[in-house]
Amino acid sequence: MRRLVVKLPGWAGSEGRPKLARAAGTVGSVLLFVAIGLVVTVSTRGTGDLSAPLGKEGPPSYSHFSYFPIIQKNHPAQILNCGFETGDLTYWQTGGGLVVGTVSSVWKDGPCLAGRYCGRLGGDDKVYPGNVPVDTYGGIWQTFRVPTATEVSDPQITLRYRVFSHDRVYDRVNDRYYDDFEVSVNVALGAITKADRHSRGCNVCSPYPTTMTLPVIGAGLLFCGGNRTCSRPMTDIPDDTGWLTVTLQLDPGVFSGQEITLYLANWNRRTRDFNTWTYVDDVCTNW
Ligand SMILES: [Ca+2]
Ligand SMILES: [Ca+2]
């Protein structure tokens, strides 16, 4: 990964070190901030001048220049908190009408796959003993930058998920979608259509394998996890997919050096009973 070093005007403090603690500006189209003492490597998207407001600490002296590493303010180069080990959804954005959060595996038989915490999209039966909000989702997403093709030749995201469902993904008798866990790239959660689901095979009545590799060649829905038997469980015990692993292969010809948003969402549709919720863990990039 390339480091971009920016030359900033600075001035000497009493100990001969620059007093400038931080500054903000734009290099090309990227908003950046700069801080002393952080050594962070970033990919660059453009070149240009960094204009830095120098505050009220005194007029700048241009008799010397200081060099600082820079980091990108809004969009990191990787998925952050990918294993949810902060114990919360730090770095993730959230939305939808179902609860989202993290859970702990501290107790015996806790649900998480790795580490101490994982994400939970939607609420379990304690959260929603009934009256589940309908036609909505519990979603999280994160925007980050894919490295360039020269930096990483095979950029991948691997994610682990486990769906518990009293419902089913698809009802083929009535050609209806009920509950599922959907992963998409660069398309807002509410914009995915029934036709999109059909085209991704979400109406196929067959469980996914334990591991799955999907090429990602553009924006859109990638898959629909959940109870893919097309039948609801016959008992009160929810269908459990177990932990499944999906590797997303990002086409470098499409995504090289681009910012992308990865969306994860647990949907409940049509009925206020038949709850569904999804655990996610280790949603991480390979770079
Ligand atoms: Ca974890
Ligand atoms: Ca349902």
Provide structural commentary.
This protein has helices at 194-199, 252-255; strands at 5-9, 22-27, 30-35, 65-72, 93-95, 100-104, 117-121, 136-145, 156-165, 170-171, 176-177, 180-185, 211-216, 220-225, 239-240, 244-250, 259-268, 276-285. With 287 residues, the chain is mostly beta strands. The chain folds into two domains: 5-72, no CATH class; 93-285, Galactose-binding domain-like (Jelly Rolls, Sandwich). Strands 6, 7, 9, 13, 15, 16 and 18 form a seven-stranded mixed sheet that branches. A five-stranded antiparallel sheet has the order 5-8-17-12-14, with no helix packed on it. Strand 10 and strand 11 form a beta hairpin. The protein binds calcium ion (2 copies). The site of one calcium ion (CA) has 7 residues, from loops.
Please sum up the structure shown:
With 287 residues, the protein is mainly β. It is built from two helices and 18 strands.
